[in-house]
């Protein structure tokens, strides 16, 4: 099972269809293994964080945030709406659904960060962490709002206030927040910069103007990841001993989720001149290179068992969707089988040998990809 073997019936089962604003809002609220989640955490523990061991790099980063080089970036130019209508009229209904799924998922992810960072800011007194969360919430709010404007072009705008109230929240210990958010921000950078570079080389494949904003946009994501890298390097115990097992888990979970989700949208990547599997492994490669700044281990993304396992997880997702559509006792039994198989596959991938890294003295990296 790979992107080339997924027909639209499979894709429709996996991502559903969006026909109106009610569908779009319901999709944003829905919580599944593959959809972006909203999080809360232990604010008292966050309040005790100490960035003294990385003070010089931290202060330099805060100056960058304060400089706010993207303060006027997220403004639509005069031709934005005209280009949207001209380009989108050329898209097939199937491609339109994949693009809408991409926008809604991206908005939910960005808004999730905004909510988390703002809640941390409101519930702590630590001046360093409070300042960081203020800046990051500002950035993510801009990102979510900009995507929502594109959804409004289709009359599918998301009610962000209702989303905040209706979405279920998952409690994560602070260290889980650090690992997951660091990876989310860095993989977000890798995804956006890979798309931007591809469309920079092939402007004829840029079917929506939002992609023109991706370079400076993804540099916000990159800086957010740098912030969590500094927090983790300031507290070395987070990167040692049994915590390496959690790092391994979160890397695998983020990569596997991205692989399955991206292969739900094969037409989206094909329209850009990309192929889902090739694109994903390029994103994994970039993310793994960046993460050597902070993680002492990395997954061997070229291991044959790893690659085969991701294909198995994709097949499990497709078969589970079919079983859910079938319903009834037989459908539920099938779902139990495919969920169990996915769990066992993930466990096997988790036990694969990992690569070990020596952490560099200087934490921060420049976004040079």
Summed over residues and divided by their number, the pLDDT gives a mean of 91
What would you call the structural class? mainly alpha
Order of helices and strands: HHEHHHHHHEHHHHHEHHE
Indicate how many domains the architecture comprises: 1
Task: Please report the distance between the alpha carbons of the first and last residues.
Answer: 30 Å
Reading off the top of the CATH hierarchy, the class is best stated as Mainly Alpha
Task: Report low-confidence residues grouped into runs of 5 or more.
Answer: none
The CATH level-2 architecture is identified as Orthogonal Bundle
Rg, alpha carbons = 20 Å
| Biggest beta sheet summary | 2 strands, parallel
CATH fold name, please? Ribonucleotide Reductase, subunit A
Question: How are the strands of the largest sheet arranged?
Answer: 1-2
Number of strands: 4
Estimate the global geometry from the Cα principal axes.
globular
Assess the beta-strand content as a share of residues. Answer: under 5%
Helical fraction equals 55-70%
Query: What count of helical segments does DSSP give?
Result: 15
């Amino acid at each position: 099972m790979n992107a080339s073997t997924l027909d639209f019936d499979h894709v429709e089962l996996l991502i559903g269809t969006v026909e109106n604003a009610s569908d779009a809002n319901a999709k944003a609220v829905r919580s599944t293994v593959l959809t972006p989640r909203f999080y809360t955490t232990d604010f008292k523990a966050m309040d005790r964080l100490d960035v003294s061991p990385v003070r010089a790099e931290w202060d330099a980063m805060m100056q960058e945030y304060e400089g706010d080089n993207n303060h006027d970036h997220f403004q639509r130019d005069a031709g934005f709406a005209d280009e949207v209508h001209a380009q989108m009229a050329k898209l097939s209904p199937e491609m339109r659904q994949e693009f809408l799924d991409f926008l809604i998922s991206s908005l939910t992810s960005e808004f999730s960060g905004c909510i988390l960072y703002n809640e941390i800011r409101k519930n702590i007194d630590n001046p360093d962490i409070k300042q960081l969360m203020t800046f990051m919430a500002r950035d993510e709010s801009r990102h979510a709002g900009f995507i929502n404007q594109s959804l409004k072009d289709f009359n599918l705008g998301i009610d962000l206030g209702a989303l905040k109230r209706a979405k279920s929240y998952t409690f994560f210990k602070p260290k889980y927040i650090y690992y997951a958010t660091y990876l989310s921000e860095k993989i977000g950078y890798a995804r956006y910069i890979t798309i931007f570079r591809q469309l920079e080389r092939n402007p004829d494949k840029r079917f929506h103007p939002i992609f023109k904003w991706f370079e400076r946009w993804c540099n916000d994501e990159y800086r957010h990841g740098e912030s969590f890298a500094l927090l983790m390097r300031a507290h070395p115990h987070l990167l040692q001993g049994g915590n390496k097992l959690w790092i391994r888990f979160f890397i695998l979970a983020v990569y596997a989720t991205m692989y399955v989700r991206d292969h739900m949208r094969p037409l989206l990547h094909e329209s850009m001149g990309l192929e889902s599997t090739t694109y994903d492994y390029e994103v994994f490669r970039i993310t793994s290179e960046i993460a050597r700044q902070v993680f002492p281990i990395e997954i061997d993304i070229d291991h044959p068992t790893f690659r085969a396992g991701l294909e198995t997880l994709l097949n499990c997702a497709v078969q589970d969707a079919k079983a859910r559509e079938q319903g009834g006792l037989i459908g539920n039994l099938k779902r139990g089988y495919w969920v169990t198989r996915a769990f066992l596959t993930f466990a096997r991938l988790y036990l694969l040998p990992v690569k070990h890294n020596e952490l560099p003295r200087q934490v921060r990296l420049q976004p040079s990809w």
